[in-house]
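User: Second chain of the day. Same drill as before.
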Amino acid sequence: MDVFDAIRNRRSIRKYLDLPVEWDKVGSILEAGRVAPSSGNLQAWKFVVVRDLNKRKLLAEAAGQQYWMEQAPVFIVIVGVFNKHERFFGQRGKDLYVIQDCAMAAMQMMLAAQALGLGTCFVSALQEEKVGEIILIRGGARPMGILAIGYAAEKPQMPLRYRLENFSYLETDAGIAYVHGYTPGRHADYDMEVTNLRLAQRGINYAKQAAQDIDRLTKEKRKGLLHRLIEKAKSGGKEKQQKEAKQQ
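Assistant: Same format as last time:
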């Protein structure tokens, strides 16, 4: 796949087919992360592959209870080795460089997965200590995010994007360009419209996901309740028949 096609077509996938991911494809994705750029070429990352269903469930729970993640047959937990950056670059390396490096590795892995016909979603809302316990990392390392990988069961449309002119400047200070180069109706009002739309979309998506999670978690309980209601109706019918027989 052309790299620009992979960039344009990549989406955050939250529904996956019940199909395994070939191990050679997982290896190719890891290789894409391995060759990503890093500050000082320190490569201060670790990629932890998780395929076990029980561990995936625990990680989904530790990632803000995002249970949709369990559908993805493969997780790659991207871990940053903070103490390595701190030794070479001091506080800035610890606070910034390691995060940048892990983000670039994650992006390259997502594009590689897209080129291989797979869907991905990068999840960064983590309870770091719980994730660390599940994948057994400790010391100066911290989980930066989880990459969920699998064959997509959905084809999301591209979300609303800013126009290129809204954030690109040529040889000038961005602040000056913002003040003097754009009228409010062309820039500031558009920013507000995009923000409002994104907030509305986020609320709708959260509501849909919550409904799906509730439906999944209560499905077995509803089945049990329905079974009890059917049994009750049957027993009630039998009692009515017996009563009518006695009256006759």
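The mean pLDDT is 84.

User: Great, on to the next one.
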